[in-house]
C-alpha cells in the first residue's frame, strides 16, 4: 500500500522534484567533473609510462583480449540495466527499480571477478605494481577504476536495503538517480581504459 500511495503522489522525474534533489544532481555533476580530471591524469601518466616495462612482460605479451572483451561486455550490459532502472524510476515502479539494480550489481560483481582473475594472472607472469613504471601505471589506473566499481556496488546495495524501509519518495529518488549516473560514469571510463590501455597496447606492440 505504501508503494502505491507513493506512486500516486510522486511527480514526473521525482529525482528533480525538489530543490534539494536538483542541487544534489548539480553537485554530483561537479563531483564527476573532478573525477574526470583525476582519471585524465592517470590516463596521461599511463600513456607516458606504458613502454617502460623494465625488461618485464609488455602489454602485447600480457593482455588476454578475450577475457578483457568479456569483462567489457559485462560492464556495458550493466550500463543498460542501469538505464532500465532509471526508466523504472520515472515510472515510479520501485519493484522494477530493485530488479534492474540487482542485475546491475550482479553484473558488476562478475566484472570484478574477471578483473581480479586478470590481475592474479598478470602477477604470476611477473607483471607487478612494483616491477616497472608500466606496472605501476597500469595497476593504478585499472585498479582505481575497479575500486570505483566496488564502491558503486556497495552504494547500490545500501540503497536497495534502505528502499525496503523508506520506499520511493522525492527524498530517495535522487539517490537512485545519482547511483545510476555514477554507474554510467564508470562504464564510460572503462570504454576509455579498454581503448587506451588494451587496444592501443596490443596495436602498439604489433606496430613496434
TrEMBL record:
GO-annotated biological processes: aerobic electron transport chain
Stored InterPro entries: Cyt_c/ubiquinol_Oxase_su3, Cyt_c_oxidase-like_su3, Cyt_c_oxidase_su3-like_sf, Cyt_c_oxidase_su3_a-hlx, Ubiquinol_oxase_su3_dom
Record membrane topology: Multi-pass membrane protein
GO terms of molecular function: cytochrome-c oxidase activity
Record PROSITE patterns: COX3
Residue ranges annotated for the Heme-copper oxidase subunit III family profile domain, each copy included: 26-202
Highest taxon in the source lineage: Bacteria
Family recorded in the similarity comment: Belongs to the cytochrome c oxidase subunit 3 family.
Name of the protein in its database record: Cytochrome B oxidoreductase
Species assigned in the record: Brevibacillus reuszeri
Source organism phylogeny: Bacteria, Bacillati, Bacillota, Bacilli, Bacillales
